[in-house]
Amino acid sequence: WAVFEPEIEAIEALKREHDAVILAHNYMTPEVFHGVADIVGDSLALAREAQHVTAGTIVLAGVHFMAETAKLLNPAKRVLLPDLRSGCSLAESITPEDIAELRRQHPGVPVVTYVNTSAAVKAASDICCTSGNAVEIIESLGVDRVIMIPDQYLARNIAARTGVEVITHPGACEVHERFTPADIDDIRSGNPGVTVIAHPECPPNVVAASDFSGSTAQMIDFVGQVSRAGVPDAGGRRKVALITECSMSDNVAAEHPDVDFVRPCNLCPHMKRNTLTAIRRSLELGQHEITLDPTLEAPARRAIERMLAVK
Ligand code: 13P
Ligand code: SF4
């Protein structure tokens, strides 16, 4: 940790100098998550918190769609993304033209759009959702069919929990699509009694083989439940496997020394661009400032605000 300290101190000083706060996603490395973040959370929490920021600058230690969402919800603030290459395979998988084509094929069916998308795609949608509220958002529409884009796996996982039919788009998260049921079998056979917790961007057969599925914040909460009430093994330890991005286990392990973490993980290269050095430079140079296309701003904000009004 000592190796990070000079950079952490420099960032803290820059935050004061520039009236900035750092909102960090749960996939940040521990030195960002525990070292410099002011607010941490899943996509839903970061969106909600962005609305209430009073500081002049938000540094979004996450990926581009998260910074864009923060700007949409608090447009008077300067929003900085440390590295503009922090994209997302889901956001890149779909365009507004794809939505227009889906609407032509399925007239009258509402479009529910995962927040992991560009402002242009949100603007072409009826309502947004995150992995933390997708069930409630879909049920709030009171329909029996929705177009749910762009993550085909999230859509199918949520459909299985709602009884609402989903029309999907072939997008996938490059991190979560790599997990397989064989991975879960290996974890269970090597770790009797382990609790397997999977993100709903994993393929449905991976989620079906797990004990719980939810957003990154819901996964963290579930670790807390296992820590409090899970059945310990013969050695008095509780074991958890988080089927998601690597840094989650590192961050949660620091808060639950009583739990052993089995670590089958895949790295998100986009999230990992938020190094301490990138964050420091972002504050020093005021880069990279997120701007919005004024023609997309109002419709994109409406889709997010409709979501936040439900949950
Ligand atoms: P959460 O909203 O669950 O934090 O997920 C965001 C994400 O990018 C997962 O890959
Ligand atoms: Fe996108 Fe997947 Fe990375 Fe999340 S983990 S930002 S969904 S590529």
UniProtKB/TrEMBL annotation:
Keywords: 4Fe-4S, Iron, Iron-sulfur, Metal-binding, Pyridine nucleotide biosynthesis, Transferase. The keyword ATP-binding does not apply. Its EC number is 2.5.1.72. Its cofactor is [4Fe-4S] cluster. InterPro entries: NadA, NadA_sf. Pathway: Cofactor biosynthesis; NAD(+) biosynthesis; quinolinate from iminoaspartate: step 1/1. One of its GO terms (molecular function) is metal ion binding. GO terms for cellular component: cytosol. GO terms for biological process: 'de novo' NAD+ biosynthetic process from L-aspartate. The keyword Transmembrane helix does not apply. It comes from the Bacteria. This is Quinolinate synthase. It comes from Yimella lutea.
